[in-house]
Amino acid sequence: MTRATPTPRRPRAPASASQQRLDPIGGLAAWPLAPVVALIVVTYAIVATISRMHEIQITELAAASVAVLMIAAAVLVWAARPDLAPFTRTRAVVIVALGLAAHLLAAASTWQFNGMIQDDFAPIGLGLLLLALAPFRPWKEILTLGVSSAVVVGVTALAQSPFLGIQTPPFLFAIIAMTQVLAPALASAAYSRQVVNSIHRWQTDARRAIRARTEESRGLLATEVVDQRLKNLGADVLPFLADVLERETLTAADIKRARSLAFQVRRVLVAEVDHTWLDDLIDRERLKLTERGLNPLCVIADPERRATGFDSDQRAAVGALIVALCRLKGFDPTSLVVQIDGSGEAPADTDQITQAFGHRGARPTPAADTTTIAIVTAAEEQAATQAKAQARAQAQVHAATAPRPRTTGLSAIDTITIQAGISLPPFHRRRALRPYLSVLRAVFTRVRVTSRHPLLTLEFDAERTTTKGIK
Amino acid sequence: MSLGLPGHLVQLTLARALARAAHWFALTCLMAAVVSVGILSLTRSPELWITIVVVAAMGALLILFTRHRRITLAVAYLIVGTLGVYVFTTTVLGVPDVFPASNMFLVALPKMALVMVGGAGTTALAGVLWSTAAFILAETAAFLAILGTAVPYRPDLFTLSTYLVLVGVMVLAGIDRRASNAAQPAIHRAVQDGSNRQLRDALDTRAIALLNDTTVAQLVALSLAEPGALSPGLRASLNYTLATLHDTNWLTDIDARTNTAPRPTVTGTATENTPKSPVSDAWLSSAVYTAIERTRDRGLVVEVTGDRDALACLDAGSDRDVGLAVEQCLVNVILHAGVASAEVAIESDLSTISLLITDAGRGFTESESASDRLGLRQSVRRRIEQLGGSVLIWSRPGAGTSVRLTVPAATHTPTNPATSQTARNRPTPRNPPMTRATPPSHNPATPRNPR
């Protein structure tokens, strides 16, 4: 239940949190850092190699070193791309490992002939690569990678110390080399930690404020719900009951009427119970599109009511995306199709009756009796039927063609497909939807975007570990 | 998590994080400098001790500045840092026969630390100005110092590139986010909408349950009645239904009651429940009692056994919902079971309260219940699940029906009146999934005699 908790204590940000994960849109803004850093690293490596040609003994190794560092920079640019978010730990480790490999190759290429440690390009390059991880990875990981890289760099410097041009204690070289890695790495970790804490603190406060705002509207919502319920009850039921009470007698016609009214009311209530948040959302958008003078036709195909298994973040991400799609210039109001299917059990939200007498193996009743819920404006019922059939056909095609990921244990995967026709140039479309997609990538897995002009298809997976009802 | 920072907080947050990063960069440089000159002064030139003092002073000021972020401290850091750079450069490069030129990384360390003062600027422009000032001061001090030594001057690319990278990052942080201004509020709105919808769903669930209890049940009762004069039971229930529905506050009322303080818990003597003990107030004021009374009014014989006072462990809201759920179960007995009696057994342990509603009536099968699933589904199951409880149903045609409602109890400490309120926020105990549940200890087809 949503109830404001009075505890003022702020929970700590999870250890795996990064700026990109917590604030995907902010992470989006930080992405240019990666190509800039990559460019600096590569340029510096090339310039430093050329200017130290006289120290290089094995040119192939030096070339290989620069090449590996270039690969590391390329991986960084690739890994930070917003459409490939989130930036995983593997990517970070690969980048740093490549940087270290470049460092070892460079040290080997000038073995015994390195004049000075401080003008080696690899430690600085490595430090810059670690710096670029700041918006994408948690601080502890950056710190660990930084310290371990510094140790490797320090050890190589110690190993080279007998052959260097300057006569000082060997530890000094190690310190110089390590500082070149550690200073940017610590700065990167400090940035990551501070940003994550700030965002997390804000999120905690914002959620509290949202809860408080919701609580404030409780009275209003309750009145609305009551009004709507009484309206749905129809003008018939209450007068009928009052009439019977007043007459104090029951006629056969009354009994018949009571039966039919009971049936009607129950049918309405059952339909209401099967309504999900997604239906509500689409209903509202449809209303807004109608207000704009359009003829909307939006189809939801969620036969197993899988939408009920989404958590609040996932609901918000999908909701914001659908709203954004509907308000986009060039959106075709008849084209929106939202479909949810998947593997594993649907979220348990329906009656389950155990029959324990007679046979032991009790089993739950099948899920809700509705197959496909498609709601449309009253004027377009026929079109709706068509669309419904279309959606069902699409669902069948999808079910037949899409590979179903196998799941084990309690986990289930819901696949959400959103299709919309948007007649906008691809560039504008991408730019308008980028922030929403970045949020989607933070809360769902495997976000795929395919586009066959003007049709845009978004597909993404939601993993559920437990099956829960209304949350 | 999708709630990103709103536009007005972005600059401040990024500025703070950059300041933190800059301070750590500077601290690392200063620490490296201290350790390096420490090693040098131990092994080669004892006169280097002065540089340790200088760098330590810079470090101390930097830490002070990090803590308090005052302009005076920044200025002090700049002044001490400039002097420090001068002393450090003169002393280190003054060590004979070690350094071939002035552009040593070791010499650049305090300068890089000084440039980092700019990271503390609250805006990108201020940051750039601070670090430019620091850069110019540091380079001037170093140049003057180098002139006084025998080492040839070479431009220091380390400090220059550090300065450029810092300025670049600050500018990047300063100009970002223009493109995604619209999306962040949209996400925020979506979260708020989701929250509202969730509350609405909860209210709807309750409303539908209540409508089902009253209206549908009433209509079904009428459709099953014989033509002729209304029986007293029917009249009473019709009155009740109409009164409930006409009262426009039926939903808010429940809600208001949920928020009120829980009823005082029963005293220790009353929890020792025996059939002969005086009937306590807790039981008489509970909604379960009211529900049972109401169905008794409609002609059902209800036998209550077990620990009645355990119901005092429920707070007002839970009590009301459990009462409504029990009433729905009993109404089902009236409507469907074809018998005139039922039994309600109340059990409790430390963490849960269970109510077992048993009849020896017709019973039903799954397929029959599917058409009539709203009552059990909405009025009983959803209600109880909203309280964090669980519902188990055993039934077979001809063998009666048992429904067991289990709800979490508030921790029973009579000295603390706020306990049942906190219980709502507590994680509710997980009940075993019903497919693995064991049937009740007795056969519901043959109701047990009351104790």
From TrEMBL, chain A:
Query: Which residue ranges does UniProt annotate as crossing the membrane?
Result: 28-49, 61-80, 92-113, 120-136, 142-159, 171-191
**Domain of life of the source:** Bacteria
What UniProt keywords are attached to this protein's entry?
Membrane, Transmembrane, Transmembrane helix
Q: What is this protein called?
A: Uncharacterized protein
Species source reads Cryobacterium flavum
From TrEMBL, chain B:
CDD domains xrefs: HATPase_UhpB-NarQ-NarX-like
Pfam families on file: HATPase_c
GO terms, molecular function: ATP binding; kinase activity
Q: Which GO terms describe its biological process?
A: phosphorelay signal transduction system
Region span, Disordered: 256-277, 410-451
Q: Where is the Histidine kinase/HSP90-like ATPase domain?
A: 321-410
Transmembrane intervals: 21-42, 48-66, 73-95, 157-175
Gene3D superfamilies according to UniProt = Histidine kinase-like ATPase, C-terminal domain
- Could you tell me which PANTHER family the record lists for this protein? NITRATE/NITRITE SENSOR PROTEIN NARX-RELATED, OXYGEN SENSOR HISTIDINE KINASE NREB
Stated name of the protein: ATP-binding protein
Tell me which species this is from.
Answer: Cryobacterium flavum
